[in-house]
Amino acid sequence: MQATDDRAFLNPLTDYNTRSESLLAKGDSGELASTHLNPLQSTATLLYNEVEKAYSSGGHVDLRDSSVYTGSAGVALLHLKRGELAKAEALVTPYLKGLRGKYKDCTFLCGDCGPLAVAAIVYSKMGEQYSHQRSECIDMILQMEKGVCASKSLPNEMLYGRAGYLYTLLYLQREIGESCVPKQAIVDVTIAIVQSGVDLSEQLRHPCPLMFVWYDEYYSGAAHGHAGIIYLLLKVVIKYPDINLDTLLVSTVDYMMSLRFPSGNYPSSLESGERDKLLHWCHGAPGFVYMFAAAFEKFGNQKYKEAVLDCTEVIWKRGLIKKGYGICHGVAGNAYAFLCAYKLTGDVKHLHRANQFALWCTKYGEHGCRTPDRPYSLFEGMAGTSYFLYDMAHPGHAQFPAFEL
Prior knowledge:
By secondary structure, this protein is mainly α. It is built from 15 helices and no strands. 53% of the residues lie in helices and 0% in strands.
């Protein structure tokens, strides 16, 4: 394949025009038409079977990795996507048996909270006879809250920090019910994140009113930086309008918007002089889409919608990245940004582009992309691509797994 640079292929796909074939099925179901959906579902199932085979044999995966990001809890989410409760339960239960009394890592993607939350949702779906196990998982998560808020060393980002814990609380409320997580816990964690951001900004005398650091870098993307943290804070204030952080959040989103490269992409950190190179969910415009979309939902300012659209243009141009087909740093993750824009605007152009990227993913392994370190995992490998292709069945309800709310 011809490359645009050392990181992306030249996009050979057909863009949307007014003569493009309708993608949606007739009626108001919101489903993708079967002629478009069938090849996507076929590949989704093929990849799913490969993941299941790898986990059944145990020969090609690290069964000690229980995380959502690269381990068994992420595969359990794929099982949940398919309604395979027994298979999901079989992956999370062994982890829980070894966890009692030892849990401490607070994040959803790379910590104990992810497997605990996935298990709670599995048990909730399995019925009242599993209510004790569900409650035990939720209690273990909630017992971490004081330490999460009080810690002086805990970062604030998604993978290893407070934002990952905040996501866990919001996710449990969405999947199980509002009453399973007290509002005050969400308020306390939100305040801890904001106070940390304000303190660091004042310490640095930085023009951005909320500053966050991870491993001595002021990251801006969804995985380790502002885009992911601010997205979750926006979802909190959308859900609970009485939590008034408007001035701080508007000023921070506006500052982040000012970092835009001429291409429409965004830097991976707030350091000056960075080249315009990274374009995937964890670093760059694909992760910024969700922050801008949430800002538009909360504040209604058209400039935030325009920021989303600017991001999608550079993703269309440079989003077929050579790193692979995954959701963290791959084509499927970039395609989710189009689905976010489609839900925001209703413009079928974005659905068309998502479908074109999905068709690219049906040729899994044929483009010369890099093989990921964990080739069967949710965030790096086949499980995430399969999840995305299944999500294309109902694009108006699709959500980037373990991140989008």
